[in-house]
Amino acid sequence: MAKITNIRIGIDARGAQSGAAQASKSFDDIGRSAAAADKRVDELEKDIDELGSTAKDTEKDVDGLAEATDDVGEASSGASGMVGKLVGAISAMLIINDVVSTMREFETGLVGVGKTTDLTGDALEGLGQDVIQMSTQLGVSTTELLDIAQAAGQLGVSGTDNVLAFTDAVAKLSSASDLVGDDAATALARMMNVTGESANEVGVLASVIVELGNNMAITESQIAHVGTQVALSTAVFGTSSAEASALGAAMGAMGIRAQLAGSAMGRTMRSIDKAVRQGGVEMQALQAITGKTAEEIETTFRDSAVDGVHMLLEGLQELDAVGGDTTMALEALGLEGEEILKVLPTMALRAQDVGTALTMMRAEVEDATAADEEFARAQDTLGAQTQRMWNAFDALKLKVKETGGVLKDMASFTADLVSSMAGLAV
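The chain above was modelled as a monomer; its predicted structure follows.
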């Protein structure tokens, strides 16, 4: 047992010496850490001092920035005033340019009207003022109205009242149909020239065309096209522009081409006229087809050539209904060939459509309201009223012309202002 005890004591003594050495080393480490900590504290104090110095410098910078901001504010205020003046000057220049442009365009159009209508001086100036007034009422620009008036002169319409009446009617037709501007003017004037009617009647023709276009399977422009060809071939028999339009509407709705329609109508009226004037076999054939006496036929045709044609078509329709030979009947009248056979038999089968067109035409000749009514409907839209608004602005611009030197004074003032801003001598 003694050996064992000695061994334990020896071992424990060596352990104690090792522990003491380790403890001494630990104390040395703590000492070094403490010294390092003192050094760090000194550095921290130094940093705090530097921070304080930086804060003072920053305060000085803020004060400098404030002073600089005040300087910028003063400079900005001056620049803002300059920009405001510049914007005002530019706005004035744009307004002046717009007014001058409108005046120049109007005067160019008015000069064109003078050339074609031979109007000059006060008469031309008065027409110009009427056109301006018309534009604010119709919602059609002065440019378009002057174009129509110029076309009227080219087509033989003369006199201020006639030119204005023509312009008004065509402008309404343009708004109420697919016949627009110069094309409408040309179509109506050409037809009336062919039939020898006064330009004062153009409103009636426009209303007839609108009414037919509203109620038949054909557009207004097609009616005018076919009607013109019919008028060219039948005017010698006293056919009016309204009657030619009615026949044109009926034939066009049947798909008959304009030139063919005109040619066939011309031949038909010449054949009836020959029968009325000469009698003989042709009159007997006409009596057999229509069931009318020679006197009744003559009276009807002399009163209205288109009614004479309609009477013939109704007779052919009845003949066809009972199984008669319409081709032979037409040959007896001297009406033969492909041109006739492509037109009259087709029209005979739809004689009631021709009658309807003639009835509508005559009712409209009495009232002449269709164009005005259709125009009123077309004007009851945002787009049309907006156009009227712009037309009113244009009318106001054109009034500047009557104020003498106001526009000149505005231009002079603006020029002086811009020159002053640019540092130029005024």
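The mean pLDDT is 79.
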